[in-house]
Structure formats: structure tokens, C-alpha cells
Amino acid sequence: xxxxxxxxxxxxxxxxxxxxxxxxxxxxxxxxxxxxxxxxxxxxxxxxxxxxxxxxxxxxxxxxxxxxxxxxxxxxxxxxxxxxxxxxxxxxxxxxxxxxxxxxxxxxxxxxxxxxxxxxxxxxxxxxxxxxxxxxxxxxxxxxxxxxxxxxxxxxxxxxxxxxxxxxxxxxxxxxxxxxxxxxxxxxxxxxxxxxxxxxxxxxxxxxxxxxxxxxxxxxxxxxxxxxxxxxxxxxxxxxxxxxxxxxxxxxxxxxxxxxxxxxxxxxxxxxxxxxxxxxxxxxxxxxxxxxxxxxxxxxxxxxxxxxxxxxxxxxxxxxxxxxxxxxxxxxxxxxxxxxxxxxxxxxxxxxxxxxxxxxxxxxxxxxxxxxxxxxxxxxxxxxxxxxxxxxxxxxxxxxxxxxxxxxxxxxxxxxxxxxxxxxxxxxxxxxxxxxxxxxxxxxxxxxxxxxxxxxxxxxxxxxxxxxxxxxxxxxxxxxxxxxxxxxxxxxxxxxxxxxxxxxxxxxxxxxxxxxxxxxxxxxxxxxxxxxxxxxxxxxxxxxxxxxxxxxxxxxxxxxxxxxxxxxxxxxxxxxxxxxxxxxxxxxxxxxxxxxxxxxxxxxxxxxxxxxxxxxxxxxxxxxxxxxxxxxxxxxx
Length: 637
Prior knowledge:
Layout: E1 4-7, H1 10-23, H2 29-48, E2 64-69, E3 74-79, H3 86-92, H4 101-106, H5 111-115, E4 133-141, E5 150-155, E6 160-166, E7 172-179, H6 189-199, E8 207-215, E9 232-241, H7 258-269, E10 277-283, E11 289-295, E12 312-316, E13 319-325, E14 337-342, H8 358-381, H9 383-397, H10 400-403, H11 408-414, E15 417-419, E16 422-427, H12 429-435, E17 443-447, H13 451-455, H14 461-466, E18 471-473, H15 478-481, E19 487-488, E20 491-495, H16 509-521, H17 523-532, E21 539-542, E22 551-554, H18 562-570, E23 581-584, H19 589-596, H20 603-617, H21 625-636
Helix pairs in contact: 8-9, 20-21
């Protein structure tokens, strides 16, 4: 066959400029694409050879070779896969997203179609070679054809390509890139190995490169100091495999040891410690994928930086696509490490950006369920490991209450808190319910800046007196998360710092009557306090919730708590004015003194001291600390 000069399909000509300038965010991806294509060609030969073993031509060991020639400035990726005939080279290397794979799959049916999922698509990956090359030469011979029917395809990526017939003894494909001057870094064995290890380490075929060894330079003649010429890496004439050649997640679980799982986790996470939990599954159905997920032993330092890219590693048919596939796990599980390998996940033309689709949603939901199952298994079967998990990741897990409605109940069962009866963060909602007193109809909780502040809060006094357990919540996320959880297993959650205290059947009639009488008896003082504190408090009322403290601050049900308002202000956010309710203990000596001072000039100072002390008791700070100090000093002298 004489050399033919043909034009690219119109879309290809338009694509080439886009490929070389903006399609790929990282130039080194070209090597991943070409190795992926070589692997696809070998997979395709393996499939066709099931019916015609003669296609192997006495060379059944499928492999990919990567070689370079520094003098000629060429890089070659070759395989002994299926290869192409001259017409296939014309048809498939001049057309977008067509390597013959689509046509190949369209002729399969039944069981054959399932097996053909091993075979990838050539796509636009081949054209990515023009990112680093100003000319590409491809030499083919299709398996089963005579050596005289080899084909050479060549193009400078302008708009035309040449095709000619050559003698080609070996079957398969050899892609030679004539590198641009600014791509000389790829004429280096160390660079090539690092790119292969990053992107193609788990291609199931061996990727071979010429083995090199360091050779010291020769001695410089007549040099009294015994100097030598510079040493260099020298080819030994042997080949070495530079990838693992076996994706761990594609192997059966029974063939993988816990030590191998741990070592793989350390490789992908750069963690020195073994993971806390591991799950490895192949999911079949409308969307087929393999998941190998790990829960680390320790939280990263930047776990609460929600802007940082996080996620699992995404592979398609064992080819690395991206490090942080955020779409495959919800943000509140951003601490999870691992690999997801899909055979049919939709990608854009560059294989770098996931498209929103039902397949992506199915994988995301499947991964979420699997991670929550891992955590539930720890909670049910290994208390020590679960406690270690919760100490590291409990706070971020709570974010799921507001982000994952579908799994809210599962998450609620996993949450743990300290309580007024225990300092350890071990009390779950189910544990609390099992200990509730007869007649108790709510799960009581309090939020605060710290565990110590929560435990010493005046709002707990009546609950302690009656022996009612209260959950203590001291994580910054608690206040926000509890807005999305109003009940647990049919029992409402009630903040002891919101609304009037209502213990229902746990409060006897005498206590209720005493509270009503105090409200009536102290009405003149309450009105005077309300007037004195009109800029600070929305209301002042007598309460039965206090035993030892003179006063406390609460807010109405549904209003933003003072603690949440403080956190939002600290974060630089605009917060509407929050005026709490001041509740006073009518039996406290300080309140008695206040009543006796109703007509004195010092009443206003006492009123402000009472309010500021209540604010301090809940972890707040007076708006004017200096004024508070002056008032206290005046009372002391």
C-alpha cells in the first residue's frame, strides 16, 4: 500500500487544539491515557482469544512497555494486544471516541456482554499525546494478520494524517511520541516511573521499562587526587516491572490478609498507623463497582476545613482518575479513605470530572451505607474501638444530621454524649431512654462551650434535685446539629435552657403551686427588674428550675440560643439581636436582698449584677466587663 494522506474527521481537527491547551489540567495525564489504551488492547485480545487461541501467536504473556530515546527525543508506549488493521487505523485514529470498542461491544450479547466490561474505550485519550508531542507515529499489526500487513499511522496534529503499510513482525501497537522541547522531562526513567506509579500502578498487566543501574564514572588519567568522570544510570539490557500489576481491590477478600489491607491503606493515605476499620465489597446491580474503604485511627489536623478537597480515590477499570472524588461520599464522611473502582461510571471526555447521574448517586449512597455499617459494627461489637472512633470523628459525624436526611435515624443512634451522671462521652439516646424515670416524657439536654460549663450550669439544678439525667453537649457543632433532630424513637428532645421548665408528671402539685405564687408575689419586683434590664432581657420571671443559684438565662422555644449567637459572631457572621429571658430564684438570699432594695438607688446596679452573673454562669461575657467590676466593687465596700 502506498502512503496515503487523509484528513481528520472535522470534529477531531477542532478537538486537537482544545486537547493540547485546555482539556487536561495536568500534562502528565497523557501517559495514563496511553497506558490505559494499551491495557484495553490487551484485554480485547484476551477476550477474542477465548474463541481463537491462535491470536496469541505463541506470545500469551500480555504486557505494556515504556521506552525512551534521549537522543531522538522520543517516548514509546507499546503493547502486544489486539492491534489494528490498515482500515481500522484509518477509521479509528481519525475519529473521536472510536477505537472499535463500541462496535465490538455492540455485536456481543448475553453472557459475552457482561465479560466485555473488561474492555475500555479509546476515546480522546489517544489525542492527549499531542499535549507533549509535536508528532505521533503509531505502528500496528492486528493479531492474526501476516507480518507484511503492518500499518504505520503518523500525524503532526494539524488536520491530516498519513497511513502506510509496513512490515511489522510483532502483533500489537506501538505509539511513539516525538516530544516537544518543553517536554524533555519525560526522557527520564525516574520521572516516567513516578507518573506510572501515581496513575497506572494498579493496571492488571505488567508495565515494563528498561532496567538501569548506577555506574560510576571512569578515573581521570593523571589526576593526582584520583578524580572520576561523572557517573550515570546505565541500561542493563533487562526489563523490570514498574507497577504492582495487580489491583488489591480486584482480588477476592479471602486472598488478602489484614496486613496487606493495612499496608495498602498506608500507601494511599500516607498514614503511619493502621486503619481503625476496613470494608471491601463488590457491588453488583444497575451500577457495578468495587469499594475498598478505610476509617483512619486518627483525625487529620485539617478535618474541619470544609473547603479542603477530600474524598476517595476514583478508578475506572483499574485506571486512576482522581485523588479526591468528593461526589462519592457526603461531606460529613470526609475522613474516610479508600478506593472506588467502577466499570461503567460516566465521565467527561477527559475522564477527570464526574458527571451527575444516577450511577454517581447510587455509588454515593452505597458508600455511605457501607461506612455507617462499619461504624455500627464498631458500636455493637467493639466498644474500645468505637470509643476511639468517636473521640476522633464524633463531632464531624454530627454534621450528617443536617446534611443527610435519609440516614438521620442511623446517625442519631451512633451519637454519644456525656451526661449529668457520667463525665465520659458514652451515653447514647437509646441508653438515655432506657434509664428515663417513670412519667418522664422528654430527653433533656443542654449545650455549652465546654463540658465543665455544661455540668455546672444553673439550669441543671432542678434536674439534679429530682435525679433526672441531662445530656451534656459541648461540641461546637451540637447547637447547629440539634436543630435537625427534634425527637429520637418517638421521644422529643428538649433543651433545658429553652422555654419554661416543664417536668410534666415529675413535678408535683405543690411545686407548681409554689411557682405560680412566686410569680404573683414577686410581680412588682419582676416588673421593676424588667424595666431596669430592658436593654438586655426580653422578660424577667420567677422560676422553679433553680435551687442554689439566684438567676439564669433562657430563651424561648424556637429562638436562637445565646451560645449559638456567640459562636456565629466569633465566626464573623451577622447575627440578629438575641435578648434572653432572666429567670430568678425567689428563695435565694441575693433575690431577697434585691427585693429589700427595691426603693434604693443601688437597685439598678444589683439588677445588672444579677443579669451579668447569670451570663457568666453560662459561659458568656458581660457587654461591659469594666462596668460589671465597678458594680461588684461598689457592693463590696
